[in-house]
Each structure stands twice: as structure tokens, then as C-alpha cells.
Amino acid sequence: MRLTPRVSRRARRAFTILELLIVIGILLAIGGLVFVNLIGAQEKSEVGTTRLQMQELERGIESFRFDMKRWPTEEEGLAVIWSKEAIASDEDQAKYGGPYLKNPAPKDAWGREWIFHIPSQTEGLDFDIVSIGPDGEEGTEDDISNHDARKAAEGDDLGEFSGSSSSGTPSGG
């Protein structure tokens, strides 16, 4: 039996504009979810990279102290662990056994200079290494310090050790 022209036109019907808009909306929603998750993963990655860099900087400072029998000064900064030229005294330059860090790391994962305090602003600790985090402002919740990284690795509660930080918990840890 042959189909009438009216029936065959209905069988070949294309998508309506409404159906296309619904499909486009669904695809955009899925794309948005994927994008948001990728941004979160990138931020976690940058925080993890910063914590690893801090651990390397700490090891370099400890090696410097072992060789030089002193801590680096704030004026010398972290540069002394990869460059002898950061030391002002010729006598200290002669004792220098570095570089104590294989690759210089003058900036954190966001491209900002490290903050180095000696003595530490946290009671009972020797020095602070601080990254001001993704927002670029010092003293905010997203700041990362070498002490936070150590406490997170040990699983300790950071609230009682974090000083001026209001959150007390590391992000992504």
C-alpha cells in the first residue's frame, strides 16, 4: 500500500526550533558544569604546587642553616638558598655550600613573590614562608604558609595554630 503525500510529509518532519533550543540549552548546561569543575581542579592544583614548593624551600633553608650555622636573614631572603650573591659578607660567601635548591623558585604558583619572615610571626617556630594565594592580598583566608602545609600533611587541626587566619583550614586538603 502506498503512503499518501500527507503521511509521508509527516514522516520526514525535521526538528522544531523549540526542540533545537532545548538541546542547545542542555549542551550549554553540561559545558558550564565541566568548565566550573575544571576551574576548581586548576585552583587545587595551584595550591598543591605551592605547598610542594614551600616544602622544597624549607629543605633548602634547613640545609643553609646546617652549612652556615645560622638562618638566612630577612634581607637575604629566600634567594640565598639558590644564589651565593644574596649574601653580603665575603666570609659567609666562603662558607656557602649551596645552592641548596636545584631550581630557583622566586615566585609561587600565581607568579607572586614569596613572603619570608624570620623570626616567625607564629610563636615557637623559626621562620615563615607565605604565599598570598590566588587573590593576591596578604592576610586573607586563601593565604598559604609553610606551617599550614605541614599541619595539613600531619592531619592536625589548624585553627589553634593559624594566627590571624580566620578559617583555620587549608583549601583542598
What is the structure about, briefly put?
By secondary structure, the protein is mainly alpha-helical. Helix content is 43%, strand content 5%. The chain has a single domain, classed as Glycoprotein, Type 4 Pilin (2-Layer Sandwich).
Overview of the structural elements:
Strands 1-2-3 form a three-stranded antiparallel β-sheet. It contains four helices and three strands; from the N terminus they run αααβββα. With 173 residues, it is mostly helical. It has helices spanning 5-11, 17-68, 90-95, 146-154, and strands at residues 115-117, 128-131, 144-145.
Blueprint of the fold:
Layout: H1 5-11, H2 17-68, H3 90-95, E1 115-117, E2 128-131, E3 144-145, H4 146-154
Antiparallel strand pairs: 1-2, 2-3
Q: Give the SSE order as H and E letters.
A: HHHEEEH
Helix content class: 40-55%
Low-confidence stretches are 157-173
The assigned CATH architecture is 2-Layer Sandwich
Indicate the proportion of strand residues: 5-15%
Quickly count the helices: 4
**Oligomer kind:** single chain
**Class computed from helices, strands and strand pairing:** mainly alpha
Quickly list its features.
173 residues, mainly alpha, Glycoprotein, Type 4 Pilin, 3-stranded antiparallel beta sheet, 43% helix, disordered C terminus
